[in-house]
Amino acid sequence: MDTSSGSAPRVSVPGAQVIARAAHLLRLVTAAGDTGAVVGDLARDADLTRPTVHRLLTALRAEGLVDRDDVSGRWLPGPELYLMGSVAASRFDVTATARDIVRSLAVRTEESAFLSVRRGDETVCLLREDGSFPIRSFVLSEGIRFPLGVASAGLAILAFLPPQDVDAYLERHPELAERWGASHSPARLRTRISDTKVRGYAVNPGLIVEGSWGLGAAVFTRSGDPQWALSVTGVEFRFGGERLAELGRVVLAHAHQLSTRIAARS
Prior knowledge:
By secondary structure, this protein is an alpha+beta fold. It has helices spanning 16-32, 39-46, 50-62, 79-92, 95-109, 152-159, 163-172, 176-180, 186-199, 241-265; strands at 66-68, 75-77, 112-119, 122-129, 145-147, 202-205, 212-220, 226-235. The strands form two sheets. A six-stranded antiparallel beta sheet has the order 5-4-3-8-7-6, sandwiched between helices.
């Protein structure tokens, strides 16, 4: 059963809860990047007790999946993750296919441009290329994750999922409004989803960081699934009026080019 573009099925398997918790911790440690993460933050974000987190991290460290800086006490991705990722990249990674398109998007718009991929109920940024405009937004960079519907990339992907998948996603995540603000309530998200489908691209009008706007377009698999997204971010005054529509056309054109390239590669 292929679950690469959706949530993992809930199955009754001995030890499944431990594996799910360990996988969640791996994602949190990876998202922290080079700075690493402390046990307290990991426990809070994973909704686990500190002893449980420490026990799981110790087991993961023994397998080389995480590492610990003995000076700072912070937890970091381990060497085995790199080796596993290198093997998996040949099947799942599209960064080599997309890199010149992301760079072209940054050049054309003069804004920071990104490629993100859907992983379950989140998007993960894979590539960042900065444009020539000197004022930049740093909300997004490689490895940063957002829930679907929060950043413009995730909104673009969510908008083009089948309606029943959108309904199921919103039912699974009633916490979005509490964590990300009232603009992420189901009703307001549905309005933005509808607007995105009409325009063809998603707009995030400073909903994550005030004054930092984003615009994204979905990139599709050969079978028509929205698995990736191209996006640009920048300061608010660069995303107004006619320029917003022009940015939308440019991002859509690049997203179509990448979708075509991925379909030809499949």
